Hints:
The complex is a heterodimer of chains A (333) and B (253). The model of chain A has no long low-confidence stretch (mean pLDDT 88). The radius of gyration of chain A is 20 Å and the shape is globular. With 333 residues, chain A is mainly alpha-helical. Chain A has a single domain (3-328), classed as ABC transporter involved in vitamin B12 uptake, BtuC. The longest helix of chain A has 35 residues, at 46-80. Chain A starts with a helix and ends in a 5-residue tail after the last helix. Chain A has helices at residues 3-24, 32-40, 46-80, 93-111, 117-145, 149-173, 176-186, 195-214, 216-222, 226-231, 236-258, 264-276, 281-306, 310-328. With 253 residues, chain B is α/β, with parallel strands linked by helices. Chain B is 34% helix and 27% strand. Chain B has a six-stranded mixed beta sheet with strand order 6-7-8-3-9-10, with helices on both faces. In chain B, strand 4 and strand 5 (63-64) form a beta hairpin. In chain B, helix 4 packs across helix 5 (140-153) and helix 7 (198-204) packs across helix 8. The mean pLDDT of chain B is 92.
Amino acid sequence: MKRPTLLFTLLGILTLGLFIVDLAVGSVAIPLGEVWAALTGGACDPTTSDIILKIRLMKAITAVLAGAALAASGLEMQTLFRNPLAGPYVLGISSGASLGVALFLLGAPLLGISGHSFVQSLGIAGAAWIGSAVVLAVVMIVSRRIKDIMVILILGMMFGSGISSVVEILQYLSNEAALKSFVIWTMGSLGDVTAGQLKLLLPVVAAGLILAVAVIKPLNLLLLGENYARTMGLNIPRTRSLIFLSTVLLAGTVTAFCGPVGFIGLAVPHLARMLFASADHRVLMPASMLVGAALLLVCDLAAKSLALPINTITALLGIPVVIIVVIRNRSIF
Amino acid sequence: MSILLNDITLRYGQRILLEGVSTSFPQASLTALIGRNGTGKSTLLRAIAGLGPASGTVELCGRPLAALSARERATTLSFVTTDKVRIANLACEEVVAFGRAPYTDWIGHLQEEDRTIVERSLQLVGMESFARKTMDRMSDGECQRVMIARALAQDTPIILLDEPTAFLDLPNRYALALLLRKLAHEERKCILFSTHDLDIALSLCDTIALLDTPHLHHLPAGEMVRSGLIERLFAGENLQFDPQHRSVRMRQG
């Protein structure tokens, strides 16, 4: 078997295994046999079946979707900006989504808007899309004028800080109930995603991933730089729009429902490059999605066992990768 | 005519670089574009490639550039820019295969014919043994050859190159210019490249296009030597052009 095929097979098996283990682990440990029975509709205690199908399955599916989504958008950002340290979190796109959600969660009660839970979910998602789209648009416009990769990173950090101050002001002005729902949101959790929210999360993330797959060839051409890509027939404005849309759908939606989850988008494409020793997006895109899904399942397992917010775990795993990338400073672009 | 320029005016900001230039470049010819720094060699190449603005009309293989779709442009003209391409984990043959982009499907899958062309392109530039090597571990001359192979794989009647001999040592400069000459004559390409290597340009190219703001003098190499235009290029500097030896030297005393 060729190396990529073998790696994809192994990664697939690993992700599936982690998925099953993730269903078994939690406040009540459920033996793997019963997990399997609940999933396949075999003989099983109804309470156990409820825990698996109604709670943990949602959570595990969310972890897979969020991991794949953040990794895919991170890969798109790194190639588009020709910057190995780019990612939805670092560039401030997740912060933009946070501001959108903050305005919605803290602002809507002030205006007396509250509604059905699906309307609420759609509101959170919509606010996150708008927030991430605004930040991404600014980052893209600035990157057209200033080619220095550090400037874009610093800009992303400024966005992050600026937005957190605005959010703090909003918190200060808010009532207790709204504040509570917002604080819980910021901790970043895969567990709060309900079946209703999943109905929105699943198709939107799927659409974002399909777009990410559709730009595989443009991303490959962009490796050589914009001039080369143009002379090879690439429609740059169209490609930028597709990547923009894909990233907003992926990073914005995940941030809306899971809170800000850092470093997955930055670290996973590097892990995929190291594993597959490739720069070809036909390999890197599916590889990043798979590694992202597996890694977020691992993070979820760790978060559950240690009772920590998921964001803490992803930062602990992601920061060493950032340091390795900075130290090795290999020419990825 | 492969490239036809009709009443081209080029500006860089407010400054006029070229005014009302009309000339043409036939197929199976190698042309060097020479001129002092900042006279607009790159700007002219970019305008011909459709990457930058110019007033007037550019025709490629008989059709106006403005009327060509992105794909039609990509199958008519390829461009080797000054951008450095050094990507870890990206093999030479993958870079060359990107040249097939205008012909491949949505995900860039290579057909048997594409593979043959990629292989042949690497052979033409003498880099077939580097196919599996990655470009982050190669010399400038080797990288330049791979980028030319990529342009060949794009299979276009016109190839433009922006300072392909910069950063190369003397033997590599000659080797590269000889390669371009061979490709122009044997593969019947119209090749236009900018350079500062006067002696290489005058001894190996069919025609010379000299940028002398705001004019473009385009003459066969021999006529260019006798025209006195090159002497004018260095007027006021402590340099002298020797038409007999086709070389430049410091003025004595």
